[in-house]
Amino acid sequence: MGSGVAPDHRALADYWEWLESSFDAPVVLAGDFNMTPDHSAWRALGNAATPLIRRGATTLSSYDNRYANLYDNIWVRPGQLEITSSGIARFPDWLAITHKQARKYVSDHAPVYFTLGSKRVDTSTFAAAVNPAHPADGQANAITNEGCIDLNAGSVEDLEQLDQVGPSRARAIVSHRPYEAIDGLRAVRGIGVSRVADIRQAGNTCPL
């Protein structure tokens, strides 16, 4: 995509309409759009689709653990797919490499993703494969405060980004605040030991 408020972004609404009229399948539009999802240029596309990633940033700063802009995203029509989670794949944390290494050898953008049904993101073996000295217990992919999901301050919409958390469970999480640790989520009906482990493993919650 071009920089600035280019016609490209507004034309995506027409492209989306063409895709839906041409294919008998749910449409998913993903990529580096070079523009944040809340920009006014997305207004036309926003009538048909919604961005899955609304918080955080995907472009890697030259400084470790810092991300600059939310330019990468996934747009879907609400309700068409059984999306259970979505997020930013902060691969430098997962692979235990510096941003300098990531930008030089991989990319200066962190990919975005979503999961369907019972599928989930498992990063437990990444760091160990690259660096055996790095812990692979789910703490290896912890992210910084920037763009993380705050269990004590996040909105219901923010909490829905947690693994296997829908609107009703997100509201239940809010009702049980405050939390002193992620394990406190076990007080919420339907969130047991294994589900807490999945949420911790995803690495997108703010430190408590």
Compute the number of structural domains. 2
CATH-defined architecture of the largest domain: 4-Layer Sandwich
Per CATH, the superfamily of the largest domain is Endonuclease/exonuclease/phosphatase
Largest sheet: 3 strands, antiparallel
Q: How far from one another are the termini?
A: 38 Å
Fraction of residues in helix: 25-40%
Structural class: alpha+beta
Q: List the total number of helices.
A: 8
* 3D shape: globular
Q: How large, in whole angstroms, is the Cα Rg? A: 18 Å
CATH fold title of the largest domain:
Deoxyribonuclease I, Chain A
Q: Give, in spatial order, the strands making up the sheet with the most strands.
A: 1-3-2
Mean pLDDT metric: 82
Low-confidence stretches: 1-5, 131-146
Kindly provide the name of the CATH class of the largest domain.
Alpha Beta
SSE ordering: HEHEEEHHEHHHH
The overall strand count is 5
Percent range for β-strand residues: 5-15%
Task: Walk me through the structure.
This protein has helices spanning 7-22, 43-46, 91-95, 99-105, 126-130, 156-159, 167-175, 193-202, and strands spanning 28-32, 50-51, 72-76, 83-88, 112-116. With 208 residues, it is α+β, with helices and mostly antiparallel strands. The protein has two domains: 1-122, 4-Layer Sandwich (Deoxyribonuclease I, Chain A), CATH 3.60.10; 148-208, Photosystem II 12 kDa extrinsic protein (DNA polymerase, domain 1, Orthogonal Bundle). The strands form two sheets. Strands 1-3-2 form a three-stranded antiparallel beta sheet, with no helix packed on it. Mean pLDDT is 82; it is low at 1-5 and 131-146.
